[in-house]
Amino acid sequence: MASPSRASLSVGESSAARASTSRLAPVLAMDYGRRRIGLALSDALGLTARPLATFTRTNRRNDLRRLREIVRLHGVRLILVGYPLHLDGSAGEMALETARFAARIEKHLRLPVQLVDERLSSWEAQQMLPRETHARKRAGGRGRKSAAKLDQVAAAVILRDYLEHQAARKPAKG
């Protein structure tokens, strides 16, 4: 598997994935973790990214069921999954686990799924959160609410980078 570029793709951008992004439909982005999954959603035009939700993982079946409900509710046609590469671009254990999860999503939800390089997205998300969150963290803990918020903001960063990359690839209309 070729490693994805910074805001680009991975698991092979199929013609189905390209076609789905040309339709007016939201894109769902995920910040996958072993404990929680942060979600972000674009508008139907693919111009904006907003944090949507974070859910605590329970088991594979329930996780996929919840994702299916969100996809149906919002009419999602493409799912992005943050691909946690090391800073040098190599894929570690978490990247491999994430790729397996993305493949399961694609199989069970029958939607195109793309892995997107997420390096530094959590750091950037942390910089975007209010100062109170940073103060709470320095005081000795992240707290469930701030950790959940961080996950969905990280998903929004992943989605924003992807949307910007896609917009830059489109030829200007004259």
What's the gist of this structure?
By secondary structure, the protein is an alpha/beta fold. It contains six helices and five strands.
What can you see in these coordinates?
It is a single chain. The protein is of the alpha/beta class and 174 residues long. The chain has one domain (15-169): YqgF/RNase H-like domain (Nucleotidyltransferase, domain 5, 2-Layer Sandwich), CATH 3.30.420. It has 6 helices and 5 strands, in the order H-E-E-E-H-E-H-E-H-H-H. It has helices at 15-22, 60-74, 93-109, 121-128, 131-138, 144-169; strands at residues 27-32, 36-42, 49-56, 78-83, 113-117. A 5-stranded mixed beta sheet has the order 3-2-1-4-5, with helices on both faces. Mean pLDDT is 80; it is low at 1-22 and 132-136.
